[in-house]
């Protein structure tokens, strides 16, 4: 595979039209006037709303999605602490806690609930059929029983945004990074529907490429390091995608991969920042911004039943030559040219922080 164009969208035009990405028109219930004295635009504040947000666990990818949602709402007139009350709850990786949070949210009766991650979405959907729900960070809404085979939500109060990443480009990337690849190691949570679904997809797709899958279940974040080390001598590369247990303990996986000299290929930028060799996936913050557009429509008065679930498949290649070296591989010039080098971002951040400390002395 040649990485000449690594950003593409399967539903770009449709998504833009459906979510209003290309429009700049003012919301119907917002009065916009110009203060002639200061020549500034004045936007009348929207009526106060309440928003409940939950995610299965806190890690950088999901946190950045949540930040994108809040920023998108603020840009459209719903500002947290002013006319928007946000109740955020993390289940800390516990599905039983996710169920308790769902019951609490239903009792609070907010204007909308955002469920970030598959387990959280499943818990919220099981708890209410009336409060508007927006799911996000869900890679397989069909397998999670959030939508039907024809793309319709199972409940009239449900819609959302998923990222069903096409598998073939991911496999192309794995084989380009490791040309002699034979066996892919896959550490996953058997309790996450999205991770199980991906495992099944891999098992179906790999034989046609002459590849095999070694799947290692890990029920808790504390199991990730040991599960990764169990791949020693049995796999050539590690692939992970949208598994919250893995994301919660990603540094443990990266440390084990460094010891084994086995590259990790992920599906998000933060995993590369935290230790993966490369990732081909969505931008988490942008994913949150698009989710925020859906939430805005609901807070602005649209019936959730009229908002169709959408899919975002805008792929970006993220690379880390530093982590690649630690994991025993060298990235090609083509990848370095067409991917986003997260090492450069880290260096820039470190320099900025150093300059700030010096200036504050």
Tell me what the structure shows.
With 361 residues, this protein is of the alpha/beta class. The chain is 40% helix and 20% strand. A seven-stranded mixed beta sheet has the order 9-8-10-11-12-14-15. Strands 4-3-5-6-7-13 form a six-stranded parallel beta sheet, sandwiched between helices. A two-stranded antiparallel sheet has the order 1-2. Helix 2 packs across helix 11. The N terminus and C terminus are likely disordered.
Short characterization:
The protein is globular and about 60 Å long. Helix 2 (60-75) packs across helix 11 and helix 3 packs across helix 4 (118-127). It has helices at residues 12-19, 60-75, 95-108, 118-127, 167-177, 193-205, 224-229, 244-248, 250-260, 269-273, 284-299, 321-326, 333-338, 342-359; strands at 32-35, 40-43, 49-55, 84-90, 112-116, 133-138, 158-162, 183-188, 212-217, 237-239, 264-268, 278-282, 310-311, 316-319, 340-341.
């Amino acid at each position: 595979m040649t990485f000449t164009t690594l950003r593409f969208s399967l539903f770009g035009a449709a998504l833009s039209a459906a979510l209003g990405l290309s429009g700049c028109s003012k919301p119907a219930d917002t009065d916009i006037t110009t203060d002639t004295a200061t020549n500034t635009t004045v936007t009348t504040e929207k009526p106060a709303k309440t928003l409940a947000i939950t995610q299965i666990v806190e890690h950088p990818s999901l946190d950045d999605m949540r930040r994108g949602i809040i920023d998108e709402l603020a840009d459209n007139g719903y500002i947290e602490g002013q006319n928007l009350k946000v109740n955020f709850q993390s289940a800390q990786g516990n599905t039983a806690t996710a169920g308790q949070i769902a019951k609490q949210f239903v009792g609070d009766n907010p204007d909308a609930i955002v469920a970030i991650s598959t387990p959280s979405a499943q818990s919220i959907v099981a708890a209410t059929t009336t409060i508007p729900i927006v799911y996000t960070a869900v890679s397989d809404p069909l397998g999670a029983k959030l939508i039907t085979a024809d793309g319709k939500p199972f409940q009239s109060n449900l819609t959302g945004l998923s990222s069903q990443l096409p598998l073939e480009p991911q496999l192309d990337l794995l084989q380009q990074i490791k040309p002699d690849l034979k066996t892919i190691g896959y550490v996953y949570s058997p309790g996450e529907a999205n991770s199980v679904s991906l495992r099944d997809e891999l098992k179906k797709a790999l034989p046609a490429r002459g590849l095999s899958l070694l799947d290692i279940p890990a029920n808790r974040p504390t199991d990730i390091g040991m599960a990764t080390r169990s791949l020693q001598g049995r796999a050539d590369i590690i692939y992970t995608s949208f598994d919250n247990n893995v994301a919660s303990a990603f540094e443990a996986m990266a440390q084990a991969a460094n010891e084994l000299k086995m590259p990790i290929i992920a599906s998000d930028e933060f995993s590369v920042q935290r230790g993966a060799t490369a990732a081909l996936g969505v931008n988490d913050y942008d994913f949150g911004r698009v989710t925020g557009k859906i939430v805005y429509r609901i807070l602005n008065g649209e019936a959730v039943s009229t908002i169709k679930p959408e899919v975002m498949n805008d792929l970006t290649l993220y690379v880390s030559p530093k982590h690649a070296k630690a994991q025993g591989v060298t990235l090609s010039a083509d990848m370095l040219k067409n991917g986003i080098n997260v090492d450069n971002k880290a260096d820039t951040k470190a320099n900025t922080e150093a300059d700030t400390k010096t200036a504050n002395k």
